[in-house]
């Protein structure tokens, strides 16, 4: 019924743009976050990828209003998100952060954990929404169990269900995939994807939730995010579409954070049958899938061969110093075999130092 849907939209509030401007945070003498600026639009999924200690969790906590920034500001549309030292109850009512530890209430059931997030809603809507969330998050079967009686994946999904129950404007997730096996990763991935997409497209009639998640593994980030940022030593060093960051990483670190890659000095390009570069010490990157096995190309020796299910990953030595990784579906190869390889010149991408 259109009337009810419009009503729901009003109850859940307007769409929000989250903006961080030059955020910085130093712990003792450790600069955890350094002048980070970003914008998260309604209905957008952003992923931040970075090594352990690069400042991802601290940044999430700053964005959620749970840590005071030393400098810079967070705002939701035109409203500043206050830090914990400025308010009685830390956090912002329209921003949810799901921690790595889930933080479920230990002594109440899964159902009650989710229901609690809806305590200010009318009972009939609350019951309807809890059932809907249990179904969406595949928790119906375990709804009467307490957290210690469910698996890690079920805990993770309960935490997400609780966080999205009242359709926050912004959902922040700290390593949502890190402790999950493949089936659970896919469930959580699809859940986030559907939630943001459906609501962004107006299918549920409520406001568009935007989602920012941090991870040290880019695999999920590449497939579900609209925007991918790379964090290093507290800095957001690159941000763009997953395709752009994957294909055109600015640095060796950004290349390595977004997937398997070969990084070599430009002076070795002739070994691959490519023209030598004007700057021989420049670093270049080549993704493994951009190298093909071919007759008549540069010749190398297979040093290692790893079965990956749908394909093999090969390590091919072109010289004593140059080892390349590439992918193939060929099944007739063995270690020590000499093979020809080919690389298109346009696949080569020069990195900044
Ligand atoms: N409460 C704290 N007190 C002191 N230093 C801290 C504190 N929290 C984080 N740090 C430091 O700040 C830096 C960034 O930590 P943060 O947890 O934000 O990184 P991260 O990228 O989320 O790491 P991980 O992936 O391992 O969770 C690290 O050097 C960490 O040791």
> Which word captures the global form?
globular
Q: Name the CATH class of the largest domain.
A: Alpha Beta
CATH architectural arrangement of the largest domain: 3-Layer(aba) Sandwich
Order of helices and strands: HEEEHEEEHHHEHEHEEHHEEEEEEE
| Quaternary class | single chain
User: Which stretches are low in confidence, meaning pLDDT under 50 for 5 or more residues running?
Assistant: 1-10
Estimate the mean pLDDT confidence: 88
Distance between the termini: 58 Å
InterPro entries: AAA+_ATPase (IPR003593), ABC_SmlMolc_Importer (IPR050093), ABC_transporter-like_ATP-bd (IPR003439), Mo/tungstate-bd_C_term_dom (IPR008995), P-loop_NTPase (IPR027417), Transp-assoc_OB_typ2 (IPR013611)
GO molecular function: ATP binding; ATP hydrolysis activity; transmembrane transporter activity
Pfam families: ABC_tran, TOBE_2
Protein name: ABC transporter related protein
Overview of the molecule:
- The protein is α+β, with helices and mostly antiparallel strands and 353 residues long.
- The chain has 2 domains: 2-94 and 168-256, Rossmann fold (3-Layer(aba) Sandwich); 262-350, OB fold (Dihydrolipoamide Acetyltransferase, E2P), CATH 2.40.50.
- Helix content is 26%, strand content 30%.
- It contains 9 helices and 17 strands.
- The protein has helices at residues 2-12, 56-63, 110-116, 123-136, 152-164, 182-200, 218-224, 242-247, 252-257, and strands at 18-27, 30-40, 45-50, 71-76, 79-80, 95-98, 170-174, 210-215, 227-232, 235-240, 262-265, 283-286, 291-307, 312-317, 323-328, 338-343, 349-350.
- The strands form 4 sheets. Strands 6-7-8-3-9-10 form a 6-stranded mixed beta sheet, with helices on both faces. Strands 2-1-4-5 form a 4-stranded antiparallel beta sheet, with helices on one face. It has a 4-stranded antiparallel beta sheet with strand order 15-14-13-16, with no helix packed on it.
- Strand 9 (227-232) and strand 10 form a beta hairpin.
- Helix 3 (110-116) runs parallel beside helix 5 (152-164).
- The radius of gyration is 24 Å and the shape is globular.
- The termini are far apart.
- It binds adenosine-5'-triphosphate (ATP).
- Residues 27-28, 30, 32, 50, 52-58, 216 line the site of adenosine-5'-triphosphate.
């Amino acid at each position: 019924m259109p009337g009810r849907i419009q009503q729901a939209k009003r109850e859940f509030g307007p769409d929000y743009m989250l903006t961080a401007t030059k955020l910085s945070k130093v712990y003792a003498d450790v600069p955890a976050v350094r002048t980070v600026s970003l914008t998260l639009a309604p209905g957008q999924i952003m992923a931040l990828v970075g090594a352990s200690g690069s400042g991802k969790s601290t940044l999430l906590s700053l964005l959620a209003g749970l840590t005071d920034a030393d400098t810079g500001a967070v705002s939701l549309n035109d409203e500043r998100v206050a830090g914990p030292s400025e308010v009685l109850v830390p956090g912002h009512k329209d921003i949810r952060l799901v921690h790595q530890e889930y933080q479920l209430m230990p002594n109440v059931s899964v159902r009650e954990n989710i229901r609690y997030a809806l305590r200010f809603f009318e009972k009939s809507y609350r019951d309807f929404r809890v059932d809907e969330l249990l179904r969406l998050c595949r928790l119906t079967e375990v709804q009467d169990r307490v957290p210690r009686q469910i698996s890690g994946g079920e805990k993770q999904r309960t935490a997400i269900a609780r966080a999205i129950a009242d359709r926050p404007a912004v959902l922040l997730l700290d390593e949502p995939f890190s402790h999950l096996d493949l089936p659970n990763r896919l469930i959580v991935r699809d859940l986030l994807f559907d939630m943001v997409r459906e609501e962004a497209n107006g299918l549920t009639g409520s406001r568009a939730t935007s989602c920012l998640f941090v991870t040290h593994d880019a695999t999920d980030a590449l497939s579900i995010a609209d925007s991918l940022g790379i964090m290093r030593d507290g800095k957001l060093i690159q941000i763009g579409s997953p395709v752009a960051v994957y294909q055109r990483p600015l640095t060796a670190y950004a290349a390595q954070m977004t997937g398997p890659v070969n990084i070599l000095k430009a002076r070795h390009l002739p070994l691959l049958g490519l023209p030598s570069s004007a700057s021989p010490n420049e670093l270049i990157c080549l993704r493994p899938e951009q190298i093909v096995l071919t007759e008549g190309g540069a010749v190398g020796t297979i040093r290692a061969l790893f079965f990956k299910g749908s394909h093999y990953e090969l390590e091919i030595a072109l010289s004593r110093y140059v080892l390349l990784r590439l992918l193939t579906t060929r099944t007739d190869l063995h270690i020590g075999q000499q093979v020809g390889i080919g690389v298109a010149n346009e696949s080569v991408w020069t990195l900044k130092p």
